[in-house]
Request: fold
Amino acid sequence: MSEQTKTGWLSRIRQGLSRSSSRLTQGISDLFTKRRLDDTALEELEELLITADLGVTTAAQVTARLAKERFNQEVDSREVRETLAMSIAEILAPVAKPLAPSPTNKPHVVMMVGVNGSGKTTTIGKLARFYRDQGLSVTLVAGDTFRAAAVEQLKVWGERTGCPVIAREQGADAAGLAFDAYRDAQARGDDLLLIDTAGRLQNKTHLMAELQKIVRVLRKHDPALPHDVLLVLDATVGQNAHSQVEIFKDITDVTGLVVTKLDGTARGGVLVALAEKFGLPVHAIGVGEGADDLRPFEAEAFARGLMGLE
Reply:
């Protein structure tokens, strides 16, 4: 990534997280105007962080670090935000792992899961763009066969990104489609196969059976398939993201997360809570609607953006 592109992306992260950061920045400013860092101040700060969806454990952890460094001293809002950003970056660093398709897998198979409305199909399109730009050959599989809109949406992304889209008629068997798509992608020597899936949680048992069938059928080709299972989470759902991770971990072996719609919420802190609780790799984040608004996740950039820091 060129320096200019990187600077542009960092400003987009700041902008995308502005709702979350303005809430935190304002709250911290209200708390720390010429104030000593005593027990009451720390308690109020911890409450603020919890209401910003950072989670109880994370809130306690980052305020404890602040207390250790500055207890009973006068602090200002900027100092508090700098220290919190450092603590948050340390929590996030272990999970900030870009998705790296292995060149030995032809193709590297990624199954995308998530509830309807989480931005799953759009995320597949954006990932296709990202890896196409890196010179990889990518095929998309319209595995959400129950929703005609999802199939059409994926076809549009296929046209935009120049990637073939494998689709069948509405209601077709998703597992059979994935099986055939893998065979074709393998014959072409594709680098990456991105499989969309259904996300109807109303009947969890049905969804579980369908996703597990896709995995089972793919493994007839190769026991290592799929190489990755990415859960797409919509940041605007806040604490509900935790239950979605739990549900999809029960259904299938989730290997990593993509967090979308961070620009549409004041609840960006939930990503920190998820990292702390589940320790799953966060491969990418989305901070806008554009094709370039989904990028690999960077811990420090996110932490500073969340705290409204340059």
Residues 77-92 form the longest helix (16 residues).
